[in-house]
Design brief:
The complex is a heterotrimer. Chain A has one domain (2-325): ABC transporter involved in vitamin B12 uptake, BtuC. Helix content of chain A is 72%, strand content 1%. Chain A has helices spanning 2-38, 46-67, 76-105, 110-132, 149-156, 166-188, 190-200, 202-207, 212-237, 244-259, 264-282, 286-292, 311-325; strands at 145-147, 164-165. Chain A has a two-stranded antiparallel sheet with strand order 1-2. A two-stranded antiparallel ribbon of chain B has the order 1-2. In chain C, 37% of the residues lie in helices and 25% in strands. Chain C has helices at 42-50, 72-77, 95-102, 111-120, 122-126, 137-149, 167-182, 194-200, 218-223, 225-231; strands at residues 4-11, 19-26, 31-35, 55-62, 65-66, 80-83, 155-159, 186-190, 203-208, 211-217. The longest helix of chain C is centred in the C-terminal third of the chain and has 16 residues, at 167-182. Chain C has a six-stranded mixed β-sheet, sandwiched between helices. Chain C has a four-stranded antiparallel β-sheet with strand order 2-1-4-5, with helices on one face. The chains are: A mainly alpha, B mainly alpha, C alpha/beta. Chains A and B meet through helix 4, helix 10 and helix 13 of A and helix 5, helix 7, helix 15, helix 17 and helix 18 of B.
């Protein structure tokens, strides 16, 4: 019984939240890795792209809520999501035409691209703060919990409860659907194969008549879609705050590098590894161990490896470990 | 080329003069002081980017380390805290050293296959050992007069010393991070530095025993006179009478002038060294590596080692600027360190000024800081123009005016993008 | 009328001219081989034919059509296939996907062409679902040639196809190239292994310092004592 309690406790505070967070990171890392693979640069504006798509979704959600439109018990944001994605795609394509295309045609150094993406980041960050303001925004509605801790306790008779938020289930299911669609696209369609070919060997792809502008356009469309979904899911699960997206950049980059740059499967793996490490390392195991130990025994202190204040350090440590041990990532990615 | 530089600097001087005459000398000097510090930061980044083509996105962290050093050097030690937890912290530190030594020795002894595993094992053991001493010590230290101290304090030395030590501390951190990520693909350094800077800020925010965390350390001793003392001093009152100036204003201006003098000396010294380095065989080699890494590699130059040198030097300069900044502020407020302001803004300075050109970096520091400050009235004005024809109380009008402060972000981004596109060599291009 | 006639080509990559007054011609169903010492501009001449460098002088005419100013991608569309020397396959794509990408510009049914490629290189059929990067050197070259054949080119250009493969694989590859030529495709090939290449060549062009030094049938060049002494090692 105590073992079960410990497991439920662990599931409730580690597995469930880390799975949802991992799915959000994975979607973000997929976008980073796609841009890495196709445009070959570290996109520092990616967080702002997530933020932008989410902002558009939130504005539309508010509008729908005011109109009384909704799809209860699901959150209204899901109804607004497609248009939010369209807005993010428009923003991504506009920046590509206005900014990146010039450097692409010049075949500029990846670092130049990265610096330019900093400029894009500034502009987007400023616009977002002007449009929606710098503060916390709540936009989640619909049912909050699928399983409440209370109910779980009553049904199972365990001391520990397991709560699953609706947003967590939505996050995971949407992430699964999106990832399956993405892989189907990359593996089975002509355009998807052309993207992989372009990422693999740009010169040969050009020689084969693959249109680089088309590939890049598709890459931005997918990236903006994934970014918006990731941002909205993160916002539903936690909260939307413009400044958080610059901080999310680090775990997302860590996930992409851990998985192997330019490797979509790796990005997903990386997302979950980063999320689970972050949650597990900062979780206080005191109660968990007290269930497993003998009666009346409890460890001193919280049994917490790192204080939650340092959760960003976890991504960094993972990043450093990868760079030291296997710079190509789990799945051998490109090392230029 | 030289004329162009003189022209830009004259325009800059004229702008600052205009602020002095139009707004107030206090404001103008406030801007100038931060311009000087920004110029030093830009010089540091220019060494890395302009000389060697390294993309450092962790400037904020190295600046903050300089700030931390300023606190640790200048504040008086909290003796009770030392007696309560000093031993524990010292033991924790010794354990850290022991762990590192153990890892180095163990890695020499075991076959290559086990190196990773033995390292991981020792890291975990060392981590647990450190915590044994560290946690109780931290608790004891933070319990002592938490409203005012709750930390170990510093060494009660002149704060100017921290301007040099801040550079040393930042250099140490840079050495570690450079060792790991230089030699890999170029964007890894960017991401690794982004990470280290976030961690440094996290340490500053949450390690209260070290620098009081978000409770901030205030009232750092100054290297220049205090306004109150000036206002009480006879010679100063006489001086202001001679100028027919208001004593309060004059005191504030005098203090700012003192800072400006000190900062100018620092800037001039660093500038002189940077220019000498750039023209030395070392500097020529750096640029050769930047322009053609493969060729330099083929010639037998150790590119990674050279990059590490310049990376450490550049970060040291950022650390120096960070210590100066904290000195000027008179306090360390970790929550004010945000990457847009302390990392990416410096990048805009370097790019606009002219990468590879030290004078350009200094000019960029001045221009961008000036714009950063003056963008606020500019943004307000712009928003008022846009909303001129909207009715008062109309929601969009209020909303836009409330968001005016953020036009500076858009402006900075736009400047960066325009310069990169149309004048990639910056205002004062490299010779 | 000559199928491909690239005449009096002069040009380089921005700097000094690498090839000067260089002429290369190929007939349908024939194999033309460009040989010469290292740095003679062999590969450059081929890249010039394919439009990968700007010509200052000279012209390229394919099947009676002047294509001197055409971009490489368009040349692929009108029937030129090019196999670069390095990085000539998509290593992370499967063999079949490599072939599909070769046919990317085609909008008709490509299964017949793929069958032909598989018939020519049976090992590729076996390995069709394997990533091309996992194949051996000789098999990779087969993928590279197969990829270029997918557009049903009328002229196939090969830049040192036997670089870095074993002699047995080289012989095998030359046999396949002869087989391809028999289907009526014109083949233009740059080769380091001059003797073996000239043996299968209908025409040979010996380039020295970017200029035509000798041009004759493959057999005649092999028999020419001066060519033998200077370029074939006696």
């Amino acid at each position: 019984m105590d073992v079960l309690n410990a497991l439920v406790l662990f599931a409730n505070f580690v597995v469930v939240p880390a799975t949802a967070y991992g799915a959000q990171l994975a979607l973000g890392a997929l976008g980073i890795t796609l841009i890495f693979g196709i445009l070959r640069f570290a996109n520092f504006a990616h967080g702002e792209l997530m933020s932008f798509g989410t902002m558009a979704t939130i504005l539309l959600t508010w509008f729908l809520q005011a109109q009384g439109a909704g799809i209860a018990p699901l959150p209204t944001a899901l109804l607004a999501l497609p248009l939010g994605i369209v807005a993010a795609i428009a923003a991504a394509l506009a920046t590509d035409r206005a900014v990146y295309r010039f450097y692409r045609h010049k075949r500029a150094n990846p670092i130049i691209f990265a610096i330019v993406s900093v400029g894009v980041m500034f502009v987007m960050a400023g616009l977002i703060r002007i449009i929606i303001g710098p503060d916390d925004q709540s936009f989640a509605d619909g049912a909050r919990f699928l399983i409440r801790a209370q109910e779980f306790r009553q049904v199972t008779g365990l001391k520990e409860g397991l709560a699953i938020k609706q947003s967590q289930l939505i996050t995971v299911s949407i992430a699964v659907i999106v990832v399956l669609l993405l892989f189907w696209f990359l593996q089975k369609t002509r355009s998807g194969k052309a993207m992989r070919a372009y990422s693999d060997n740009e010169d040969l792809a050009l020689l084969s008549g693959i249109d680089p502008d088309r590939v890049v356009t598709i890459a931005w469309i997918i990236t903006a879609t994934l970014a918006t979904i990731a941002g909205v899911l993160y916002g539903l699960d936690k909260t939307y705050k413009p400044f958080i997206f610059l901080q999310l950049l680090l775990p997302i980059f860590a996930a992409a590098i851990l998985g192997g740059i330019g490797q979509p499967v790796g990005a997903i793996l990386g997302g979950f590894v980063v999320a689970f490490s972050e949650v597990m390392v900062t979780y206080a195991y005191k109660k968990f161990f007290s269930y497993l130990g003998p009666e009346g025994w409890a460890p001193d202190g919280l049994v917490q490896l790192l204080s939650t204040d340092y959760k960003f350090a976890v991504s960094f440590i993972i990043l450093v470990a990868v760079l030291l041990i296997r710079p190509t990532g789990i799945i051998r990615g490109r090392v230029l | 080329m030289k004329r162009r530089g003189v022209f830009y600097f004259s325009v800059m001087a004229a702008l600052l003069l205009a602020v002095g005459l139009g707004q107030s000398w206090n404001v103008a000097l406030g801007i100038i002081n931060l311009c000087l510090i920004s110029a030093i930061m830009a010089l540091g980044v220019n060494m890395q980017w302009g000389y060697a083509g390294l993309f450092n996105v962790g400037i904020m962290g190295f600046t903050a380390l300089g700030g931390l050093t300023a606190v640790l050097v200048s504040m008086p030690p909290v003796t009770e805290a030392w007696s309560a937890g000093g031993r524990g912290i010292a033991l924790a530190f010794l354990s850290l050293v022991a762990t590192v030594v153990a890892i180095i020795i163990a890695r020499r002894l075991v076959p290559p296959l086990f190196k990773i595993w033995i390292t991981i094992v020792i890291v975990i053991l060392g981590f647990l050992l450190i915590r044994v001493f560290y946690e109780p010590a931290v608790e004891q230290i933070e319990a002592i007069n938490p409203a005012h101290t709750g930390y170990l304090g510093g060494f009660n030395l002149p704060i100017v010393l921290s301007w040099f030590l801040g550079g040393v501390v930042a250099a140490g951190a840079a050495w570690l991070i450079g060792k790991i990520s230089l030699g890999l693909r170029a964007d890894y350094l960017a991401i690794a530095t982004l990470g280290i800077s976030e961690i440094i800020i996290a340490v500053l925010k949450y390690e209260e025993w070290l620098s009081r965390g978000v409770k901030n350390v205030t009232g750092l001793p100054r290297p220049v006179p205090y306004e109150v003392d000036l206002m009480a001093a006879d010679w100063f009152i006489n001086l202001t009478a001679w100028f027919h100036a208001d004593v309060t204003d004059a005191a504030s201006i005098f203090v700012k002038l003192c800072y400006a003098g000190l900062f100018l000396i620092m800037l001039a010294a660093i500038m002189w060294l940077a220019e000498r380095a750039l023209r030395s065989p070392w500097g020529r080699m750096m640029r050769a590596i930047r322009d053609n890494r493969d060729a330099a590699n083929a010639m037998g130059k150790d590119v990674t080692w050279r990059h590490l040198q310049v990376f450490v030097l550049g970060c040291a300069v950022c650390g120096i600027a960070g210590a100066m900044l904290t000195t000027l502020d008179g306090q360390l407020t970790p929550s004010s360190y945000i990457p847009l302001r302390y990392t990416f803004l410096i990048w805009v300075m370097v790019i606009i000024g002219g990468s590879g050109n030290n004078w350009g970096a200094v000019l960029g520091g001045f221009i961008i800081w000036f714009l950063w400050i003056e963008a606020e009235p500019l943004g307000n004005w712009l928003m008022r123009m846009i909303t001129l024809f909207m009715e008062d109380g109309f929601w969009l009008k209020d909303h836009l005016i409330a968001g005016a402060a953020y036009t500076r972000l858009v402006l900075m981004g736009a400047i960066l993008l325009v310069v990169m596109r149309f004048a990639p060599k910056g205002l004062i291009p490299e010779k | 009328m000559t199928f491909l006639s690239a005449l009096h080509m002069t040009g380089g990559y921005g700097g000094a001219d690498i090839i000067q007054d260089c002429s290369i011609t190929v007939e349908k169903g024939e194999i033309a081989v460009v040989v010469g010492p290292n740095g003679a501009g062999k590969s450059t001449a081929m890249r010039a034919v394919f439009g990968m460098l700007d010509l200052r002088e000279g012209s390229v005419v394919l099947d009676g059509r002047d294509i001197t100013l055409m971009a490489p991608q368009q040349r692929v569309a009108i029937g030129m296939g090019f196999v670069p020397q390095n990085r000539n396959i998509f290593v992370t794509l499967t063999v079949q996907e490599n072939l599909e990408m070769g046919a990317y510009i085609r909008n008709d049914d490509i299964s017949e062409t793929m069958e032909q490629v598989f018939a020519l290189f049976p090992i590729l059929r076996e390995r069709r679902d394997q990533p091309a990067g996992e194949l051996s050197g000789g098999q990779r070259q087969q993928v590279a040639v197969g990829r270029a054949l997918m557009t049903k080119p009328k002229l196939l250009m090969l830049d040192e196809p036997t670089a870095g493969v074993s002699p047995i694989v080289m012989d095998d590859l030359f046999d396949k190239i002869l087989e391809i030529a028999k289907t009526g495709i014109a083949i233009l090939m740059v080769e380091q292994n001059a003797r073996q290449a000239l043996e299968i060549a209908d025409h040979g062009f010996v380039l020295v310092q970017g200029r035509n030094r000798f041009s004759d049938t493959g057999q005649a060049l092999l028999a020419d004592p001066e060519v033998r002494r200077s370029f074939l090692g006696g």
